[in-house]
Specification:
Layout: E1 3-7, E2 10-14, E3 32-36, E4 49-53, E5 56-64, E6 67-72, E7 77-81, E8 86-89, H1 95-112, E9 116-125, E10 128-133, H2 140-149, E11 153-156, E12 159-164, E13 170-174, E14 179-181, H3 183-189, E15 195-197, E16 205-207, E17 219-227, E18 238-240, H4 244-253, H5 263-279, E19 282-286, H6 294-305
Parallel strand pairs: 2-3, 3-8, 10-17, 17-19
Antiparallel strand pairs: 1-2, 4-5, 5-6, 6-7, 7-8, 9-10, 9-11, 9-12, 12-13, 13-17, 14-16, 15-16, 18-19
Helix pairs in contact: 4-5
């Protein structure tokens, strides 16, 4: 039996059930496909790219002809065919497999198909979407949860497509509605909302966003916040203007890529990022890592979006 799901405003067809995604009508035409087909692991010794944290590779990518092999830290492997929009995993669809699929593999596949896929969170305000971009652990999900708790619709807490339409309006297409929090954040921000483990061996949990109604598909972006590194010396909320080049570099550093050896694809990503930065206001956001001050962060960002960009709101 085939299941159809919505992902980044397109249709993913899968034989496996993917509870994290909204279902689509069975008549919907699939643009991406996923198959969990247990089998032996590939024998690859020369990886084209590896992301290393703590001395260990968290994700390794190798090009095999027209396809790409992705191997994760827990041994889960995916074979990705960008031309066919097809993904095959060598294991059954456990929560870890689904986590890798939704939050790493599909964004990289869509990048290979020409989309600017950004590692960030986004919420909907009265003026449009506000996007938070930064390294893992910089507070993207925490900020999304804080805004969601103040009545703003959660669009995504991890990934989105950013594009510029023919009217020079920057658009955000969220991959899927998700709220994933570490234990300390969930205790303060998620309350009694329904939750489940994000993966089989991870510490983060997925939570049901507040007001989880039908998600808008494509939303105009009102502002972009690059998140500064957490610092114990930061005791006030700061929104700091940066150059377009600095902002674009920060945006590019948080883009999902499948083939980092492809010079043409790299150039396209750079051009897309510069186009986004040229058409929306952007600042670097620094704020105290204090849950009690999150309402001040929300107010500061909303005030910035409704008026001139201040250098320091502290």
């Amino acid at each position: 039996m085939l299941h159809s799901y919505g992902y980044c405003s397109i249709v993913l067809v899968s034989r496996e059930e993917i509870d994290e995604l909204p279902r689509m009508p069975a008549t919907a035409s699939g643009q991406l496909s996923f198959l969990a087909e247990p089998g032996p692991q590939a024998d690859v010794h020369d990886w084209d790219y590896q992301s290393v944290h703590g001395g260990e590779a968290t994700i390794s990518i190798a090009r095999l002809g027209d396809q790409h092999l992705l191997q994760f830290y827990d041994g889960v492997e995916f074979c990705v065919d960008p031309q066919r929009g097809a993904v095959v995993c060598s294991q059954s669809a456990t929560s870890s497999v689904r986590h890798h699929l939704l939050d790493q593999v599909l964004p990289r596949l869509l990048n290979a198909q020409g989309s600017l896929m950004v590692h960030g969170s986004a919420v909907l305000t009265d003026r449009g979407a506000v996007v938070f971009v930064g390294e893992s652990g910089y507070g993207k999900s925490t900020l999304a949860a804080a805004f969601n708790g103040h009545g703003h619709t959660l669009l995504t807490d991890d990934c989105m497509r950013l594009s510029v339409d023919r009217n020079a309006v920057v658009q955000c297409t969220p991959t899927y509605p998700s709220l994933r929090l570490w234990p300390d954040s969930s205790a303060r921000l998620a309350g009694d909302s329904a939750s489940k483990p994000m993966s089989d061996n991870g510490q983060k949990w997925r939570f049901e966003p507040v007001g989880n109604h039908a998600q808008p598909g494509i939303v105009p972006v009102a502002g972009l916040c690059l998140l500064g590194a957490p610092s114990s010396s930061c005791d006030s909320v700061e929104l700091v203007e940066r150059s377009a080049t600095h902002t674009a570099a920060g945006l590019i550093s948080q883009c999902f890529r499948l083939d980092l050896t492809n010079a043409a694809a790299t150039a396209t990503t750079f051009e897309q990022a510069m186009a986004v930065v040229d058409h929306i206001p952007a600042v670097e956001l620094r704020y105290p890592r204090d849950f009690a001050q999150l309402p001040d962060v929300v107010d500061a960002v909303l005030n910035w979006m409704s008026g001139p960009v201040p250098a320091n709101l502290g």
